[in-house]
Amino acid sequence: MQDETFTRVASEIAALLDIPASSLRPETTIVEIGMDSLDGLQLLIELERVTQTQIEEGDLKRFTTIQSIVDIVNLRLREAAA
Asked: Which domain holds residue 62?
């Protein structure tokens, strides 16, 4: 599930920021790719839509790397399944 979530997150970020998904690595920071707070909110909304789970607005503060976003999405998916 981790790889699937990474692929989904990278794809959504790539579409949002108009960058190649192949350029994104788990350790890529949101600063490196130029993601601002509005982009983060848009990403959160889109990830909620595609994963059909709720991601809390407070989670935005934890969006620091691609991996941190993947971890948050996986956490919310596990919580929703419980």
From this structure: 2-81
Number of separate domains in the chain: 1
Helices (H), 1-82: 2-17, 37-51, 66-81
Q: What is the mean pLDDT of each run of 10 residues along the chain (82 residues)?
A: 86 96 95 94 94 91 95 94 86
Contact 76, 15 (CB under 8 A): no
Q: Tell me the residue type at 13.
A: I
- Supply the CATH number for residue 18's domain: 1.10.1200.10
pTM over 0.85: yes
Q: What is the DSSP letter of 19?
A: -
